[in-house]
From TrEMBL:
It comes from Anaerocolumna chitinilytica. It comes from the Bacteria. The modification 4-aspartylphosphate is found at residue 58. The lineage of its organism: Bacteria, Bacillati, Bacillota, Clostridia, Lachnospirales. GO terms for molecular function: DNA binding; phosphorelay response regulator activity. Residues 3-121 form the Response regulatory domain. Transmembrane segments: none annotated. This is Stage 0 sporulation protein A homolog. May play the central regulatory role in sporulation. It may be an element of the effector pathway responsible for the activation of sporulation genes in response to nutritional stress. Spo0A may act in concert with spo0H (a sigma factor) to control the expression of some genes that are critical to the sporulation process. Residues 133-234 form the HTH LytTR-type domain. Gene3D superfamilies: 3.40.50.2300, LytTr DNA-binding domain (2.40.50.1020). Keywords: DNA-binding, Phosphoprotein. SUPFAM superfamilies: CheY-like.
């Protein structure tokens, strides 16, 4: 079962696009739960508490257009597949800024959506078993793949999340205690009052510190050494 959001300001087009999209996925034996929205504001509000694997998004809409909505989705959600469904072919290159999975022309919907579904199966279905962590902030929900997070560093009111492949960390306003509770089921170890580490990225544990696979050294609290080693060995065994 995958959750799909469809956003289009054309009330007449919504049920037609929704039915065709569901039929195309069903033909590939993929069950869907599809929710419709008439504008980008409604969609973004829903995404604060619902994770959609796919967003089917019109471009030409009043208020926030589809390109702007896509950019806002990308600000806090890197794993949703965005598929543009539009006749605005002149804005295809502009849409690349949000790295869409594909572009479906309304005038050729059935053929285009079939090709995009095949692309989704090939490139994205493998991510269905990936675990996600939802970080609730004051204004939104940040959804990240658990195996994408290397470690979290405490920094007073705002904690820093270090992601693989990104040099600059993301900042989130949550206490380390709450983050520990949230991430522990996903293989994170509290090695110090100021650090939570994903065990997948630990290369070796030394006397008073550990070394990550990329060479970064992080301190281990004096009272936590035994606990850190025990948890790490246990997680490796699982």
């Amino acid at each position: 079962m995958i959750k799909i959001a469809l956003c289009d300001d054309d009330k007449k087009a919504l049920p037609i696009i929704a039915g065709a999209a569901e039929s195309t996925f069903r033909a590939q034996r993929i069950h869907t739960e599809l929710q419709c929205f008439l504008n980008g504001e409604e969609l973004l509000k829903a995404m604060e508490h619902t994770h959609f694997q796919i967003v089917l998004l019109d471009i030409d809409m009043p208020g926030l257009d589809g390109i702007e909505v896509g950019k806002r989705i990308r600000e806090g959600n890197n794993n949703t597949c965005i598929i543009y469904v539009s006749e605005c072919e002149n804005r295809v290159f502009e849409s690349f800024a949000v790295q869409p999975l594909g572009f479906v022309r309304k005038s050729n919907f059935l053929n285009d959506i079939a090709a995009v579904v095949q692309l989704y199966i090939k490139n994205c279905m493998q991510d269905q078993n990936v675990e996600y962590i939802k970080f609730s902030t004051r204004n939104s929900i940040l959804t990240l793949k658990s195996n994408q997070i290397r470690y979290i560093e405490g920094s007073r009111n705002y904690q820093k999340i270090f992601l693989t492949g990104q040099q600059e960390p993301m900042e989130i306003k949550m206490t380390m205690e709450k983050l520990e509770y949230l991430t522990e089921p996903h293989g994170f170890i509290r090695i110090h009052k100021g650090y939570l580490v994903n065990y997948l990225y630990i290369q070796r544990i030394q006397t008073n510190h550990l070394i990550l696979q990329d060479g970064i050294t992080l301190p281990i609290g004096r009272s936590k050494m035994g606990e850190v080693k025990s948890k790490f060995i246990s997680m490796l065994g699982n």
